[in-house]
Design a protein that fits this description.
Pfam families: Glyco_transf_8. By secondary structure, the chain is of the alpha/beta class. It contains 16 helices and ten strands. The chain has one domain: Spore Coat Polysaccharide Biosynthesis Protein SpsA, Chain A (Alpha-Beta Complex), CATH 3.90.550. It binds 2-acetamido-2-deoxy-beta-D-glucopyranose (NAG) (4 copies). The site of one 2-acetamido-2-deoxy-beta-D-glucopyranose (NAG) has 6 residues, from helix 12 and helix 13.
């Protein structure tokens, strides 16, 4: 068993360098061209900048859904725009509700995101949705010190996830004080169901839960907790949920109950620097590369009540890198990968190909607007 994990340290690095990049097909390449520069000039009115006194969106009910994307460094990663277009069109096509899309990122990237949003609305002929932009340059200032320290504690490699940005959900309840709940989505998804059904799952949270997460569907945490399993009596860390273990979480889809994050003493304690450091030492958890999902996976090892177990069908991860590298035991791999429920959201993580229907949306011509 140990041998699989040694081999997968390398795979982990590969995974990190691949992760947020949707595969480049012809459609994507045309979109990449379109979304490299903002169509509209950077009008400041588009920003919600100061959120303190913003109006409250009607997010308590199922008829209005708030969705959050973190969207940044689009200039360095031309495939982000096409990935977002695919995610948004699929989501809007099946939505029975009005959606507010909140984009959090550098000023340049969120303006590109807004262009993508408007194109997706046009492509799906939908109405009633709105877009809100937040600039991280200013919003993150008060949390820079905290996030910088978290990053230095939880970044074993020099991959993409070394940036503070990948830990942003730890403070998102402070960044969006005007929202009560939000669904955070990655930009490499294909949404095959009505997002209102996802929103409805907030009602299933146990009283102490602050967020909903699906399990990580590759043996990432089997490997990350191998030292802890070897040294401690706890045989459950990183082991498949199907045999009673703590499999770890994936953050491609997160239901965030921001209000509970703001008021939960358990969450506040679990995420303060001193507790994170102590927990990390206790679990010998130093092999980490995946940003916030490493932290929630670690916290979930002992404070599971903070997390609502989102059914795997809402974040069906398609990456099979641990298996295709041919080093990981296939049967063990399948214990992590299996998800028998009908898929609601496909997640093309590590560049995995999405279902064919994900590539069939109508596209605007790349050089017109
Ligand atoms: C778009 O929606 C409008 C109004 O709902 C409708 O009249 C029109 O036929 C739709 N167009 C397409 C291409 O679906
Ligand atoms: C969506 O918003 C429009 C107004 O923009 C409103 O007329 C409509 O009833 C809303 N739909 C739902 C499902 O709430
Ligand atoms: C989503 O929308 C597509 C296209 O309109 C439709 O074929 C499909 O049945 C919808 N799926 C669900 C789960 O509503
Ligand atoms: C904070 O969390 C740690 C780790 O779970 C736990 O040992 C400690 O008792 C908690 N402290 C408080 C005040 O809840």
């Amino acid at each position: 068993m140990r041998a699989y994990c040694l081999a997968t340290i390398f795979i982990n690095l590969l995974l990190v360098s691949w992760l947020p990049q949707p595969r480049a097909d012809e459609t994507s390449r045309r979109h990449a061209l379109r979304y490299l520069t903002p169509a509209a000039s950077a009008d400041r009115d588009a920003f919600v900048g100061d959120t303190s006194a913003s109006r409250r969106s009607g997010d308590a009910d199922v008829r209005h859904v708030n969705v959050l994307f973190t969207f940044t460094n689009v200039q360095q990663n031309a495939m982000l725009g096409p990935g977002l277009m695919r995610t948004l069109t699929s989501m809007l096509r099946n939505a029975s509700v009005n959606i507010s899309c909140h984009f959090l990122g550098d000023a340049y990237s969120v303006i590109v995101a807004r262009d993508v949003f408007h194109d997706a609305v046009k492509a799906t002929n939908s109405t009633g949705h709105e877009v809100r932009l937040y600039r991280t340059e200013t919003l993150l200032e008060p949390y820079a010190d905290y996030l910088g320290k978290v990053r230095s504690m939880f970044s074993a490699s020099r991959g993409k996830f070394n940036r503070d940005f990948f830990f942003i959900t730890l403070v998102v309840h402070r960044l969006l004080p005007h929202l009560r709940r939000v669904i955070k989505l990655d930009s490499d998804l294909y949404v095959a169901a009505d997002v209102a059904r996802l929103q409805a799952l907030f009602a299933d949270f146990e009283p102490e839960a602050v967020m909903g997460l699906s399990v990580e569907q590759q043996p990432v945490y089997y490997c990350a907790f191998r030292n802890y399993r070897a040294h401690a009596q706890d045989e459950r860390a990183g082991v498949p949920a199907s045999i009673g273990g703590h499999q770890g979480y994936n953050t491609g889809v997160i239901l965030l109950d921001l209000e509970r994050m703001r008021t939960s003493a358990t969450y506040a304690n679990a995420t303060q620097l001193a507790t994170l450091a102590a927990t990390q030492r206790r679990f010998l958890f130093f092999d980490n590369h995946l940003g916030d999902q490493d932290i929630y996976s670690m916290i979930g090892m002992e404070t599971q009540q903070l997390f609502y177990p989102l059914p795997c069908q809402w974040n069906r991860q398609l990456c099979t890198r641990y298996r295709t590298a041919k080093k990981f035991n296939r049967n063990l791999f399948m214990e992590y990968y299996a998800c028998a429920e009908p898929v609601m959201i496909y997640h093309g993580n590590c560049g995995a190909r999405l279902p064919r229907k994900a590539y069939t949306y109508h596209m605007p011509h790349p050089l017109t607007s």
